[in-house]
């Protein structure tokens, strides 16, 4: 892959990482603010429900963050954009949509079919 393209993907990955980290900080701030007692039980339940949803989202983002870090390492190693399953180049359109992708579209589809068969 050309250096300019690699730089473009690196910037995209860094931007996504920054957005995730910003969201994490907001969740932590909400958790700290959520220690106050609300007089209304409905307000308390709503706040707790929102916090649980936020924490669930942060868990998913943590997994995405690990994939982003892996993609950034691959850029540095010179292996970014290469399918881990078949060794083919991952299509640029796929990388624009999912810059942390490690599989080409064909291998990803095969993986999803296998997961569906296994019931995962």
TrEMBL record:
A zinc finger (dksA C4-type) spans 83-107. It comes from the Bacteria. InterPro entries: DksA_N (IPR048489), DksA_RNA_pol-bd (IPR012784), DnaK_N (IPR037187), Znf_DskA_TraR (IPR000962), Znf_DskA_TraR_CS (IPR020458). It holds the Pfam family DksA_N. Keywords: Cytoplasm, Metal-binding, Zinc, Zinc-finger. Residues 6-75 form the DnaK suppressor protein DksA N-terminal domain. Residues 78-113 form the Zinc finger DksA/TraR C4-type domain. SUPFAM superfamilies: DnaK suppressor protein DksA, alpha-hairpin domain (SSF109635), Glucocorticoid receptor-like (DNA-binding domain) (SSF57716). GO terms for molecular function: zinc ion binding. PANTHER family: RNA POLYMERASE-BINDING TRANSCRIPTION FACTOR DKSA-RELATED. This is Conjugal transfer protein TraR. It comes from Caldimicrobium thiodismutans.
């Amino acid at each position: 892959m050309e250096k300019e393209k690699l730089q473009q993907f690196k910037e995209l990955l860094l931007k996504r990482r920054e957005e995730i980290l910003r969201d994490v900080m907001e969740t932590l701030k909400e958790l700290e603010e959520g220690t106050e007692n609300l007089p209304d039980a409905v307000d308390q339940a709503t706040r707790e429900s929102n916090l649980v949803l936020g924490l669930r989202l942060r868990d998913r983002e943590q997994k995405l963050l690990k994939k982003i870090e892996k993609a950034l390492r691959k850029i540095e190693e010179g292996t970014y954009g290469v399918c881990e399953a078949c060794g083919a180049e991952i299509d640029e359109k796929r990388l624009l949509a999912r810059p942390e992708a490690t599989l080409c579209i064909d291998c990803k589809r095969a993986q999803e079919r296998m997961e569906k068969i296994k019931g995962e």
